[in-house]
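User: structure tokens for LysR family transcriptional regulator, please.
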Amino acid sequence: MSAVEMRLAELGLTLPEVVPPLAAYQPAVQTGVYVYTSGQLPMVEGKLPVTGKVGAEVTAEEAKGLARVCALNALAAVKSVAGDLDRIARVVKVVGFVASATDFTGQPGVINGASELLAEVLGEKGVHARSAVGVAVLPLDAPVEVEVQVELVP
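Assistant: Done. Predicted tokens:
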């Protein structure tokens, strides 16, 4: 078990299986020392635990928790191509999408769920640049979607 996975266990988390693609793409690809994940939905055991728009059917706090799940799924996708999460030199960028009710403006707070998880698990290596974007709808009516870019130790 890698040091990163041991840290996940200390936090009471388990690295999930990679979420299978919903269309024609790969969950993650590596080019050189960088890994780019596809957008990760908050799938748990193959299902979305909640659907709907944040600020309407889903609270901002619920969505923040779902963003944590997205980040955990992103780490699984990174491991699927990097082989070992201990190879992460740093998280470079996170892009989070929030399916938002028309008057919801708390996207940064929602995506903090992903950012905070990465920092808890990876420490300074998990601190990153980020965008948090409100959108009309996401695949499967998911409330949030997160993609991650990491640099690996060569």
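User: Anything notable?

Assistant: The chain has one domain: 3-152.
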